[in-house]
Amino acid sequence: MPAFWFFLSIFLCLSYVSTAAEPVTCSGIVPMKYRYDKISIADFGGVGDGVTVNTKAFRAAIYRIQHLHRRGGTLLYIPPGVYLTESFNLTSHMTLYLARGAVIKATQDTKNWRLIAPLPSYGRGRERPGGRYVSFIHGDGVHDVVITGENGTIDGQGDVWWNMWRQRTLQFTRPNLIEFINSKNIIISNVIFQNSPFWNIHPVYSSNIVVRYVTILAPADSPNTDGIDPDSSSNVCIEDSYISTGDDLVAVKSGWDEYGIAYGHPSSDITIRRIRGSSPFSGVAIGSETSGGVENVFAEHINLHNVGVGIHIKTNIGRGGFIRNITVSNVFMEKARKGIKIAGDVGDHPDDKFNPNALPVVKGITLTDIWGIQVLQAGLIQGLKNSPFTGICLSNINLHGMTATTRTPPWKCSDVSGAAHLVSPIQCSELTSAQHTTSCSNY
What we know:
Blueprint: H1 3-20, E1 37-40, E2 49-53, H2 55-68, E3 74-78, E4 81-85, E5 88-89, E6 94-98, E7 102-106, E8 115-116, E9 132-133, E10 137-140, E11 143-149, E12 152-155, H3 159-166, E13 178-181, E14 184-189, E15 191-194, E16 201-204, E17 207-212, E18 215-217, E19 234-244, E20 250-252, H4 257-263, E21 267-286, E22 294-314, E23 322-343, E24 361-382, E25 389-399, E26 412-414, E27 416-424, E28 431-433
Parallel strand pairs: 1-3, 2-4, 3-6, 4-7, 5-10, 6-11, 7-12, 10-13, 11-14, 12-15, 13-16, 14-17, 15-18, 17-19, 18-19, 19-21, 20-21, 21-22, 22-23, 23-24, 24-25, 24-26, 25-27, 27-28
Antiparallel strand pairs: 8-9
């Protein structure tokens, strides 16, 4: 057996042994609550025939939960069937429970889709100036909300929106599938999300968020169908999920250029663990909208295949803000265009009012125990001339070419400093060679 395959087998075996025991989890930040009060969408006239529009039923059921204030909250049960509906708002102290075989499916009536104001940290819609279409399932200022079940499906029927994007006929920014704004104590688990018009799960200005045991699916060519995007949010736990979409699987954000700088709400204390998936873009990403700052992000046990960039930390001039104390470890990737990319020239601007002198500060990035096969290029680390990236530490990284005998092109680096230990192909000269992995703690 060639040496590479021997060591890869050992790496995978050790990873399996480390996770075979009771898995480490961050999900305890929001305990799951039992709801003694239970109602069914059928009680409000819901019909799961895939034809009847159930908007009135959903809104009536949630109105009842909101106004009766049952002690401990209420569970809204969705029986097996296909429930077509327009967008609807959730309320506090509720569980949306999808039975096995239950599908909540968005209508494709884009002309009557409700508009809401742009997020203040973005200053406008992410795609188009002005407002934006409300998410399919929406929560604003809510707390103690659970979306769960027996792996039922929430289907955004996004193809009509994707085609509008491709044909450049969008008037406003497409709707997310799920969005929570100014909310806290949210659990999303054991549900399949598919065909989102835009981003799938978007908690923004929120805290204490758990996303666990979900499956997120969209075609590889579906535009901007990010999986999970924590945005100016804190205490977020993302675990044990499979994501295969047309854009980044997980992307941590915090606002866009001068609007994000002014709003000043960072994303912090985010754990990403045991995620599998594929994407033509990034596996785990920070940015590129990071103007409010991103810090204390920990990602581990990530398994990627058929990805554009395995680990992508991205920002740009005009962003300002900071990206610091980011740790990514125990990653395996197969078939990637680029293994690792940390770059200061990624992403567009909301308008021409951004300040080109607002430069991001990127420091304290630790990447360890990363293996890759069939990787076209190992990595690129490109800081900014007037704001070099510092404290970049690479340790035990092996990113191999398209075949066992193909050499991966060398790293490309500029305006960066840090250290490296046991990196193959050998790291760029800007990163000093460290003798011990503990040297990462110096950064």
